[in-house]
Amino acid sequence: MATPAAAGAPGAPAPPRSRKSVTGTRRTVAALFLLPALVLLGALVVYPIGYSVVRSFYDQSGDGFAGVDNYKALFTDEGIRTALKNNVIWVVFAPTIATALGLIFAVLTERVRWGTAFKLVVFMPMAISMLAAGIIFRLVYDQDPDKGVANAVWVGVHDTFAESSAFPKAHPGRDSPLRPQDGGFITKAPVHTGVPVALPLVGVAPDQMPGSAEKAVKARPEQGEVTGTAWQDFTRGKGVGTLGAPDPSEPGYAGMKIEAVKDGKVVASTKAADDGTFTLPAEADGARLRLPASNFKEAYNGLDWLGPSLVTPAIIGSYIWMWAGFAMVLIAAGLAGIPRELLEAARVDGANEWQVFRRVTVPLLAPVLAVVAVTLMINVLKVFDLVFIIAPGSSQDDANVLALELYRKGFSEDQPGIASAIAVFLLLLVIPVMWFNVRRLRREVRR
């Protein structure tokens, strides 16, 4: 049996000493360090949440108890119902598309030299605030193709396949030989060979005339042919020029389509030359000349991106532009952690690149994809800035979301009780998604 002397013999371990801080126990020190953070958390998070919950049960003045009336309004108020519907659209499409694009970008740029530069460009919108992005896309979606990039591209593609008219506002003047018909114009009397026909029109601004247009000239009579001139019968200056006859300063309607119609059938057609003159064969004798509606079709002006039907998809597009880079960076980090042996083994077994992507890469990236998608869902439920800035006043009701409706009820319409109910409802929507995300992250840590 060991004696006390033996316990203090050289080489024996010394008894443990109680480690005590000069300021007290470790718990006290920890509490002191945490106290500022806890105070801020309580003041900025806990108290506002508690106050919002309590305020949601009171009326507009805050003096009368309203019960659950404010929560009933969430499902009866037309504006809130529209916001709920749009939030569902946002939650379904925005995170899904942003995550899918991030996955595609991450996979395609993994083995290319310029992959880092591409990722930098795609991620760069994350450095822009929502306010700045909203202003940018408000301009991108401008209806005027000369200002809005989206419509400039759309109109360019459209006009490549469907040529627009150069004379959308042209119409006959007074004492004109033309009368309206089916969106175009037709001569009041039949025409005959050897007798030049005058087709005067007005209404086209000088800067809108075709670039190839030349000074109009009077057509010469030709035996066995119907000739004529289509031109802008207007000369600047009061009392200047002769009505019904081409003047030296009046341009011809270059490219104007003219049809000869007999008994409702087109027997001949042609286009005016740069000076407005045209010639039709003998078949046009006794026919009426028609300027079809295609000559006067309004120029295609693109899509109304910020109109009631397209405003929500358009704003979702701007959100994806901002957050696809975020999804790409996180997925690329997960992709870098995938063992290359598994991918090479699949290729050795005969799998093509699509099969490797679908059956190996995506399943291995499933945890990362889930975290990205859930994070974006939480972010989408709170979206406010983009909708408030991009949607014009005429279609803001159609683009409404819960966060924007909360702002409108609380400040524009002075209904703090309903605004608080919306805030509590948003919190209840976010909590399950956050709980799922935290649970998944803890599961990953345990692995």
How does this structure look, described?
The protein is 49% helix and 9% strand. It is α+β, with helices and mostly antiparallel strands and 447 residues long. Residues 4-8 have low confidence and may be disordered. The chain starts with a helix and ends with a helix. The protein has helices spanning 4-7, 26-55, 69-76, 78-108, 115-123, 130-140, 149-161, 311-336, 340-348, 353-381, 385-390, 402-412, 416-446; strands at 178-181, 184-187, 197-201, 226-232, 257-262, 265-271, 277-280, 288-291. The chain is built from 13 helices and eight strands. Among the domains are: 77-154 and 305-414, MetI-like fold, CATH 1.10.3720; 178-296, no CATH class. Strand 1 and strand 2 form a beta hairpin. Helix 10 (353-381) packs antiparallel against helix 13. It has a five-stranded antiparallel beta sheet, with no helix packed on it. The chain has a three-stranded mixed beta sheet with strand order 3-4-7, with no helix packed on it.
Keywords:
9% strand; 8 strands; five-stranded antiparallel sheet; alpha+beta; MetI-like fold; 447 residues; three-stranded mixed sheet; single chain
List low-confidence stretches: 4-8
How would you describe the shape?
A: elongated
Spatially, the strands of the biggest sheet line up as: 1-2-8-5-6
Largest sheet: 5 strands, antiparallel
Task: Please give the radius of gyration in angstroms.
Answer: 37 Å
Q: Secondary-structure element order, as H and E?
A: HHHHHHHEEEEEEEEHHHHHH
Q: Report, as a whole number of angstroms, the end-to-end distance.
A: 48 Å
Can you identify the CATH superfamily of the domain at 77-154 and 305-414? MetI-like
The percent range for strand residues is 5-15%
Under CATH, the topology of the domain at 77-154 and 305-414 can be stated as MetI-like fold
What is the CATH level 1 assignment of the domain at 77-154 and 305-414?
A: Mainly Alpha
Tally the beta strands: 8
Helix content: 40-55%
Category by helix and strand content: alpha+beta
Query: What is the typical, i.e. mean, pLDDT?
Result: 87
CATH architecture of the domain at 77-154 and 305-414: Orthogonal Bundle
Number of helices: 13
